[in-house]
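[Discussion] Sanity-checking designs against the backbone

I'm trying to build intuition for which residues belong where. Below is a structure token string of 412 positions. I'd appreciate it if someone posts a full sequence so I can compare it with mine line by line.
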């Protein structure tokens, strides 16, 4: 006996071994036992009447099911917000100018350091709920607004706590090398020492970080500094990721490829050499249309080059107060298509299968296949392209994580 059997559902499995677009299986059934997918296929292939096969049978009336969406790049734990900087930018001041004048990331650092764990948790919760409300069951959350060991650890603890309480799979990433804090203005090397010798070891010992990230950019850290961070991560057996080629081509992606990075993220300025390097290392290219849009960037990431090289592309919200105050994964699917030229199928692959790979979770989530977690989003749509099509309309009708029904506010 299965625990649960979903019947009369169209599955967008996103499984690359299924021949149809979206890995679609129409008029299907999907069985769940112990929180995992135990069987799926056409209803007509079921060996018996549904009631004979499962303790609970749920009829879906021809709705579509996809893997729970995966937002593989967020900074959703932070203090305050930067609406005032948004106003400045609308007056013509650039993101880089604001950062160089001590605003930008550093202004969020001040607010985050001043906030208690409880305050950070309460501030992050509605953002997490908003993602869940549009079908997200797995989210990555970075630190990077603490920039001292105590505050970075505080952020990671809040991220872990969100994962425990809110029925969301949370993956945490230590981003100590996000920006140089003002107190280290004249001693960059000492700050990298702090990241490598204190933050990474502490986060690793306490099991608070699943990966290590850095911001390799002219307003942040050099490739040399980034490499030191990657070396320290390797010592503690933590996989790496990188914010790379967002505002200029710093060669960060080539470096990340040498360290077998799980992903390189942003990539508007990625070069041919960078594409070749990440294609060879199997690194996922994470594109962040929210940041491109919000910073009014004009340089497009090299989508065709990534396609030609066979690089897996993921899409994420980059939810953060400075460059992407975005909590809508569905809007990101739309923008991946309208701004970056992905197909709706590529966009959805980017928030399911490829996003799982960007988090090193491809054996657990990201596609509807036997053995993976029953993380499933249900949608009142007649074709999966609708997920990239609507702007501001949310067709989510149900959400399961590990086979348990969770109630996003949209469906309550
Ligand atoms: N790139 C980004 O777009 C975010 N971080 C990064 O390295 C922006 C973070 C912020 O402005 O607060
Ligand atoms: Fe980011």
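Best answer:
Here's mine. Compare freely.
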């Amino acid at each position: 006996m299965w625990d649960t059997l979903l019947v009369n559902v169209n599955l967008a499995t996103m499984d690359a071994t299924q021949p149809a677009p979206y890995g679609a299986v129409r008029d299907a059934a999907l069985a769940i036992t112990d929180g995992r997918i135990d069987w799926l296929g056409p209803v007509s292939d079921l060996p018996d009447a549904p009631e004979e096969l499962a303790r609970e049978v749920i009829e879906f009336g021809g709705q579509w099911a996809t893997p729970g969406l995966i937002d593989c790049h967020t900074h959703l734990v932070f203090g305050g917000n930067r609406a005032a900087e948004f106003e400045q930018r609308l007056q013509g001041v650039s993101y880089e100018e604001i950062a160089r004048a001590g605003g930008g990331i550093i202004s969020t650092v001040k607010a985050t350091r001043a906030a208690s764990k409880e305050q950070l948790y309460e501030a992050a919760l509605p953002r997490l709920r908003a993602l869940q409300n549009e079908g997200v069951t797995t989210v990555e959350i970075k630190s990077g607004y603490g920039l001292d060991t105590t505050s970075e650890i505080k952020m990671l603890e809040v991220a872990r706590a969100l994962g425990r309480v809110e029925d969301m799979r949370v993956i945490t990433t230590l981003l100590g090398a996000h920006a140089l804090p003002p107190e280290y203005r004249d001693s960059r090397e000492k700050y990298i020492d702090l990241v490598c010798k204190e933050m990474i070891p502490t986060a690793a010992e306490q099991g608070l970080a699943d990966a290590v990230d850095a911001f390799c950019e002219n307003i942040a850290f050099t490739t040399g500094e980034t490499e030191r961070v990657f070396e320290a991560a390797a010592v503690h057996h933590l996989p790496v990721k990188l914010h790379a080629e967002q505002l200029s081509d710093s060669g960060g992606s080539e470096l990340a490829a040498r360290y077998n990075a799980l992903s390189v993220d942003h990539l508007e300025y990625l070069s041919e050499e960078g594409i070749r390097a990440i294609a060879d290392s199997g690194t996922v290219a994470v594109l962040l249309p929210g940041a491109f849009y919000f910073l009014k960037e004009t340089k497009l990431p090299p989508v065709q080059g990534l396609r030609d090289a066979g690089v897996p592309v993921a899409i994420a919200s980059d939810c953060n107060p400075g460059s992407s105050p975005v909590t809508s994964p569905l809007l990101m699917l739309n923008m991946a298509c309208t701004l970056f030229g992905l197909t709706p199928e590529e966009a959805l692959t980017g928030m399911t299968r490829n996003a799982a790979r960007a988090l090193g979770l491809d054996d657990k989530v990201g596609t509807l296949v036997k053995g993976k977690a029953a993380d499933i989003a249900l949608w009142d749509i007649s074709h999966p392209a609708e997920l990239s099509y609507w702007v501001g309309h949310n067709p989510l009708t149900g959400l399961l994580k590990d086979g348990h029904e969770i109630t996003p506010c949209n469906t309550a």
